[in-house]
Amino acid sequence: MTKLQPVERHIDAVIKDLLQPLLGPRPRSEWKLVSWDAEQGICLTFQRADSHILIEMEERNDESDCYARTKKFNVCARRQFEVLKEMTADDRHMVDAVVELVGQREDRLEVFERPTASRKRAVREILVDRVLIPEGKGQYYINPYVGCMIGCPFCYVIDRADLSRKLEGLPYLPWGQFVDVKVNAPEVLKREVTEYPPGVVRMSPILTDPYQSIERSYRITRKCLEVLLEAGFSPVVLTRAARIVEDLDLLKRFPKILVGFSIPTNDDKYRQIFEPGADPIDDRIGALEACCSAGLRTVVFIQPMLPMNVEALVQRVAPLVHAVRIDRMYCMNRVRNLYEEHDLAEAATDTFFEETSKSLRKSFEAHGVNIDEMDELYSLLE
Ligand code: SF4
Question: Does one domain contain both 208 and 315?
Answer without folding.
Answer: yes
